[in-house]
Design brief:
Number of strands: 5
Mean pLDDT: 76
CATH superfamily: OmpA-like domain
Radius of gyration: 17 Å
Number of helices: 10
Low-confidence stretches: 1-38, 49-64
Strand content: 15-25%
Strand order of the largest sheet: 1-2-5-3-4
Largest sheet: 5 strands, mixed
């Protein structure tokens, strides 16, 4: 049990270091940036903060858990990914932690989810999220969920650059919470949705100098990763 608890902590620290589109500098700079103050320690680590420490912890834990457990978890993640790929308006990819354990990243374009500058979910968004909840999250209650909102760097009317960045930060938090709250209204539990945060303008995945790039940067990302219960079950199955 001690080893299992250690691995669970390490998984949270090391998860999703690849596949998130971050440079090493961006990963290291999330905390203390304009959006960093809104993050709890767990989710900051989940999306790649403090990569060096996470990799070191994860490497030690991975040796203790073994390849067989990773394969079992990977098969479950592959199944969840396949289900997520059937959800309208969802961009789905596999990501891996420092040990090579699989997780799933699902990105929803905020242009589908919200009107410009708003955090109320559109009817299209509700339909997509309903499908996601019923076909992905409910059949996989042993997967934990993290939700992160982002914006582009567009300024707000009558606001300085600093004020605009703060407003974008707040908007990203509101949008992440809107997704979380709607999923909960569909029966997804607080126990499964571990953390929700907004990172505002941080971590753009495209060039904010173009309209197409801005559209890609306005997004909500949902991460599915192994819970302690999944890890324990995989350990028992691997024995």
């Amino acid at each position: 049990m001690k080893g299992l608890k250690y691995y669970v902590c390490a998984l949270s620290a090391a998860m999703l270091l690849s596949g998130c589109g971050m440079t090493n500098m961006a990963k290291g700079g999330l905390i203390g940036g304009s959006g960093g103050g809104a993050l709890g320690a767990g989710l900051a680590a989940l999306i790649g903060h403090n990569k060096g420490k996470a990799a070191a912890i994860g490497g030690a834990a991975g040796a203790a858990v073994g390849t067989a457990v990773g394969l079992i978890i990977g098969k479950k993640m592959d199944k969840a990914k396949a289900a997520a790929e059937q959800v309208a308006n969802a961009q789905v990819e596999s990501v891996t932690d420092a040990n090579g354990y699989q997780a799933v990243k699902v990105t929803f374009d905020s242009g589908i989810l919200f009107a410009t500058g708003k955090s109320a979910l559109s009817a299209t968004a509700q339909s997509s999220l309903s499908s996601f909840a019923n076909n992905v999250l409910k059949p996989n209650t042993d997967m934990n969920v993290g939700i992160v909102g982002y914006t582009d760097n567009a300024g707000w009317k009558n606001s300085t650059a600093e004020q605009s960045a703060q407003k974008n930060q707040q908007l990203s938090e509101q949008r992440a919470n809107a997704v979380s709250n709607y999923l909960k209204s569909l029966g997804i539990t607080n126990a499964q949705i571990k953390e929700v945060a907004g990172l505002g303008e941080s971590n753009p995945v495209a060039d904010n100098a173009t309209a197409a790039g801005k559209a890609q940067n306005r997004r909500v990302e949902v991460y599915l990763y192994a819970s302690p219960e999944m890890i324990k079950a995989a350990q028992e199955q691997a024995q």
